[in-house]
């Protein structure tokens, strides 16, 4: 989703609801050909100036990751400096109740001078329901990783030129979230600070990733990368074990098909 100035804010996360329990899916982008990610799995391009692409430039596990690039067009077609790649994914329906891990890995090269926004919404992104949720920003323009809530910003130093995990532990029964970046605590508090104005029940539905902004006086340059996006009710497995665990879970519980919206 594009925003006019500083809109705050892999999930591919997909939860396949089985007849008995969860069948979790890790998104490592290995199954997709290089190039435009729109229509691959459940990813949907959100009309960015640049394509969001499956790339083999860098990868946290395997050979592929998701590449999001800044646009150097001046003026930018959307009147937002640097606004480039923009992509989202929705779950099949809202998730309510229980504890969940949301995890994704980021790689910001030293030449990336923009910001990657990640908006984890309580509403369906595809339907335009950008309800309250976690808003995380890997800000290459000010070299900080940030979480924004209630007009406040919580930040820690940005890590460049290596893969770093952004991880959230969400308890939708207790309406809490614990956020870490590179293993360091960023925030520990309410998931939704005012759920009574938003359908009464803390929930989760979709995620939107995009890039924009640049350091003052600079031309937008570079791209950043996302890999190993995860959503589930259990701790994130090691990449080598993820596939085996997923197959075992699916064989045990069965699965229902999903379709792109």
What's the layout of helices and strands?
Blueprint: E1 14-17, E2 22-27, E3 35-36, E4 44-45, E5 52-55, E6 65-69, E7 86-96, E8 99-107, E9 115-121, E10 133-139, E11 144-149, E12 152-157, E13 164-171, E14 176-181, E15 184-190, E16 203-212, E17 223-232, H1 239-253
Number of strands: 17
* Cα-to-Cα separation, first versus last residue: 17 Å
Using only C-alpha atoms, the radius of gyration works out to: 17 Å
Q: What is the chain-wise order of helices and strands? A: EEEEEEEEEEEEEEEEEH
Percent range for β-strand residues = 35-45%
Give a verbal description of the structure:
With 261 residues, the protein is mainly β. The chain has a single domain, classed as Jelly Rolls (Sandwich), CATH 2.60.120.200. 6% of the residues lie in helices and 42% in strands. The strands form two sheets. Strands 1, 2, 3, 5, 6, 8, 13, 14, 15 and 17 form a ten-stranded antiparallel sheet that branches. Strands 4-7-16-9-10-11-12 form a seven-stranded antiparallel sheet, with no helix packed on it. The longest helix has 15 residues. The two termini are 17 Å apart. The relative contact order is 0.27.
Question: Any descriptors?
Answer:
261 residues, mainly beta, Jelly Rolls, ten-stranded antiparallel sheet, seven-stranded antiparallel sheet, 1 helix, 17 strands, disordered C terminus
